[in-house]
């Protein structure tokens, strides 16, 4: 005899109710990096917009950074750690193949025994996490979800690679996704282009590093290919995220793209015909590219500095290694 399974049932809608950020104390200006790559502060600022980045301190792990960001996000949401049912942690720089960082973060924060797992979608990881969390809240598998984007990229960056040494930084951002009476997270437009997996990639596999006694692996990037892909392919993805949310660009208060390069951000704004009244995140200038942490770090900053209003509408998009991408319209917490 076949029984009937009770279908899952969750909240009508989901929203982001809190956001938090952690920027490591050590600020590294371009001048500290230029000698090893025969570059200059002017060149780096002109080509990328970056002036400084933060590097994590000795022994400051992705779990440590996540804890600070998540505590702030919970405080803004007005939710206790014990009320979190699930933790989604997006990173590509947790230095253990297994276990994931999320269960240790949950335990450290006294969350009890929530579902806790990591996702690997590089610079698109946080926006993937927001999509999953929204579906979980609406599907009934969690009431409150902590979504963390965190990176310690300084561990995986070659100080002598001219194409990446100045690009990456460290940090953590976190959001709490909760039930809502109205839709606070629009449908996600996401995808991947695995035929371009080599465009941004760890340069050697762990197996080759071990068996061939190679140097510590770092993340390599074909800068011009990334640049062209981001400029030409990501604006249409952002446009589709607006359309599926039923929102026009004029209705936005903020545009929060992945902080990859100021020139990419400017080119996307031009293609999207972003009106002047829309605040555009440019956290990259001080924080560089923090991969999975870049969108929540930029969001926290815009709210803290008053550049975007609480409760306003924001378009966010993450894109990077995979190649993979995800975009959605959100209501700012
Ligand atoms: C990395 C990036 C800034 C490099 O800029 P670029 O204009 O593509 O640079 P190129 O590699 O074509 O090199 C152009 C010139 O600058 C020089 N150059 C390259 N890197 C340099 C550096 N760090 N400092 C000084 N000069 C540099 C090159 O030697 C070349 O000189 P030449 O014209 O005399 O031959 C750019 O490709 C970029 O921003 N890509 C996207 C990166 C990104 O967003 N990554 C994250 C995605 S998630």
TrEMBL record:
Residue ranges of domain Beta-ketoacyl-[acyl-carrier-protein] synthase III N-terminal in the record: 117-194
CDD domains from the UniProt entry: KAS_III
Keyword Acyltransferase: yes
CC terms in the record's Gene Ontology section: cytoplasm
Keyword set includes Cytoplasm: yes
Region described as ACP-binding: spans on this chain: 259-263
Alphabetic keyword roster: Acyltransferase, Cytoplasm, Fatty acid biosynthesis, Fatty acid metabolism, Lipid biosynthesis, Lipid metabolism, Multifunctional enzyme, Transferase
Active site: 123, 258, 289
E.C. number(s) listed in UniProt: 2.3.1.180
Taxonomy, superkingdom: Bacteria
Single GO MF descriptor: 3-oxoacyl-[acyl-carrier-protein] synthase activity
Pathway recorded for this protein: Lipid metabolism; fatty acid biosynthesis
Compartments where located: Cytoplasm
UniProt enzyme class: transferase
Major localization listed first in the record, in broad terms: cytoplasm
Function of the protein: Catalyzes the condensation reaction of fatty acid synthesis by the addition to an acyl acceptor of two carbons from malonyl-ACP. Catalyzes the first condensation reaction which initiates fatty acid synthesis and may therefore play a role in governing the total rate of fatty acid production. Possesses both acetoacetyl-ACP synthase and acetyl transacylase activities. Its substrate specificity determines the biosynthesis of branched-chain and/or straight-chain of fatty acids.
Notes on the domains: The last Arg residue of the ACP-binding site is essential for the weak association between ACP/AcpP and FabH.
Family indicated by similarity: Belongs to the thiolase-like superfamily. FabH family.
Record's subunit section: Homodimer.
Entry-linked NCBIfam families: fabH (TIGR00747), PRK09352.1 (NF006829)
Protein name: Beta-ketoacyl-[acyl-carrier-protein] synthase III
Natural source organism: Knoellia locipacati
Lineage of origin: Bacteria, Bacillati, Actinomycetota, Actinomycetes, Micrococcales
